[in-house]
Fold:
Amino acid sequence: MSFKISEDWLAVVIGFIIVLIAAAGIISAKIIPWTLV
Structure:
């Protein structure tokens, strides 16, 4: 196990979290207007 593998894994996790937050933002943008109506 080298540190390079850990750094790549960390980059993948960070990228996944960013995508997850972006998806949550898009979903919220579609759901919130309906809840306000």
